[in-house]
Amino acid sequence: MAKGKDTPYYIGLGIIILIFGYFAVTNVVHYIEKDKVVDSNRSQDRDPVADKFLKKFNKVPDFSFVNQNNDTITNKDLLGKVYVVDFFFTTCPTICTPMSVNMSKIVEELEDYPDFQAVSISIDPEYDTPEVLKEYASRYVEKDDSWHFLTGDKQATYKLAREGFSSYVGESQDSIIKFEHSGNFALVDREGYIRSRKDEYGNWIMVYRAVQENVNDLEPLLPELIADAKTLLNK
């Protein structure tokens, strides 16, 4: 008789165990799927991404400058090409050299694409004449047809940097440094629009870090930029 009285107890306990097991398995599956999504998002930030995942920012404003070969280069000349832009000056004692070194790595990586172009625009046009730019270019590239070093009107240059690329440029109070500018690269598509991806935190970035930031120990975003340039070049 005692055994018979215990039977409902065991049935109830079994039901509780089954219910608990169901929810436990459901939660495990949920977290596994959640981790997959997180990992997918993280890999999307680092790996090559499709064109639809590269945000389209503003179109590059009109500009007209002269390159190291005394050729006039305008934004219209670059339509149909994918190009990377930075702002620099040849006498820069700080970040310009590592920026140019990293740009040369980009040029080398993408040299097999005839529609790729690198563009470095001087923020010190009074000193950086085409002749000066020609000598500077020889330090970083053998065939300079894939890399324009541009110089022109100072006011137009600063306006292009600030309004076109949201890139800081200005004169420095330091007599040695002379000028200040952001250490970034911008990627432009065939239609003349600035393009970029999300960063590792899921935030859209307009430009790619061109040099290492020692304060936050952040590496340049060269692999990401090269991968995204290839995506646009292969469209």
Automatic annotation (TrEMBL):
Which parts pass through the membrane? 9-32
Query: Short name of one Pfam family for this protein?
Result: SCO1-SenC
Q: Which residues form the signal peptide?
A: none
Keywords of the record: Copper, Disulfide bond, Membrane, Metal-binding, Transmembrane, Transmembrane helix
Gene3D superfamilies tied to this protein: Glutaredoxin
Any idea which positions bind Cu cation?
92, 96, 181
UniProt KW Transmembrane helix keyword: yes
Q: List the disulfide bonds.
A: 92-96
UniProt GO molecular function: metal ion binding
Could you tell me which residue ranges the Thioredoxin domain spans? 54-227
According to its UniProt record, which protein family does this protein belong to? Belongs to the SCO1/2 family.
**By what name is this protein known?**
SCO family protein
Q: Which organism is it from?
A: Nonlabens spongiae
**Which lineage?**
Bacteria, Pseudomonadati, Bacteroidota, Flavobacteriia, Flavobacteriales
